[in-house]
Write a structure and sequence with these properties.
mainly alpha; 0% strand
Length: 329
């Protein structure tokens, strides 16, 4: 996203052309990722859906880690709350009203019996959300994970032994959450897993692996897509212990390899979609949920990407809408 979003703030601090090129392919990577997110919520079962769920949310956490800079928490926290927290709250309220309006017009029971129940569920049990509400866990989880990672960056060398030990502890917590976690207020159930992927993204961003490492990563990615169970980060489910995380990271690495080598025109188009991925993340389920009975899946995919892009462009024309729903001043 442009304007004052947290991703844009991170990019604005970078001036060197070689880094700008790196961020262009990262934006294209996000573009590929958000199209995969939309597709995964339209094709809701089968091998295609399972393959997407092996990597689509880890991709965004790794991309976030790749651009994360250690800044004072007193600066980062307000930026994150503006760029992610305020839009989450605004869209939650919007979705509550929209659901009663649309389902009432269709004479279908709304997702929640009343607005208070809906708001309470959003705040205390994001693992139970469905329909357009199902994606609301992502932004609170990302806020918490980014703040945790920022705190660790200030205290530990990201490449040092102490950081490795800290990540081993976080991994243990993530695996315990995977096995025993059931309730996810504000998406916090997903934070340990998200923090692992942010760390992996930070360590991965500048790597130039050799042929042997690339071949091993490709093999692991193929195995993950073909044989490993999907991840469901909203519920803290990381698939097979350790292998699910490694497989997701390998798939993201191979998609990034492709993103670096796309034609310039396609890179620019995907990067534009990637810069607008947050509004697509929030709004695509409205199209997938409410229009599913009326359109084939391919049309829903197009609408799920183009519709939020168009709505986001309209929101940017109004200062209040831009602030509330896009987190941009």
């Amino acid at each position: 996203m442009r304007g004052k979003s947290i991703e844009a703030v991170g990019k604005s601090a970078i001036a060197m052309p070689v880094v700008r090129e790196r961020l262009d392919w990262l934006d294209a990577l996000r573009g590929i990722g958000i199209i995969a997110v939309v597709a995964g919520h339209i094709w809701t079962r089968g091998a295609f859906r399972d393959g997407i769920y092996c990597f689509h949310m880890p991709l965004f956490f790794m991309a976030s880690g790749a651009v994360a800079r250690a800044v004072p928490t007193r600066i980062l926290a307000p930026r994150l709350l503006l760029a992610l927290g305020l839009p989450t709250l605004s869209f939650a309220v919007l979705f509550l009203g929209l659901d009663y309006l649309v389902e009432g017009a269709r004479q279908v029971r709304p997702i929640f019996p009343d607005a208070l129940t809906g708001l309470w569920t959003v705040l205390t049990g994001m693992e139970r959300l469905r329909g357009p509400f199902a994606i609301l866990w992502f932004a609170p989880c990302l806020i918490a994970a980014r703040l945790a990672w920022n705190s660790l960056q200030h205290r530990l060398d990201p490449a040092g032994f102490r950081m490795m030990a800290a990540m081993a502890l976080v991994l243990l917590i993530a695996l315990l959450v995977d096995r025993y976690g059931t309730i996810s207020p504000l998406g916090l159930l997903s934070v340990p897993g998200a923090l692992i992927f942010i760390w992996l993204g930070h360590r991965w961003k500048d790597r130039r692996p050799g042929l042997l490492f690339s071949a091993a990563t490709l093999l692991l990615a193929v195995l993950a897509l073909g044989f490993m169970p999907p991840l469901n980060m909203r519920a803290g489910d990381l698939g097979w212990p350790l292998l699910g995380i490694a497989g997701a990271a390998a798939i993201v690495d191979r998609i990034a390899w492709i993103a670096r080598r796309l034609p310039d025109g396609l890179t620019r188009a995907l990067a534009w979609i990637g810069r607008n991925s947050l509004v697509i993340m929030f709004l695509h389920l409205c199209f997938a949920h409410y229009l599913a009975p009326y359109f084939p899946k391919v049309v829903l995919l197009v609408l799920g990407v183009a519709g939020p892009l168009s709505i986001g462009a309209l929101m940017r024309r109004n200062r209040l809408a831009r602030l509330l729903f896009l987190g941009e001043r």
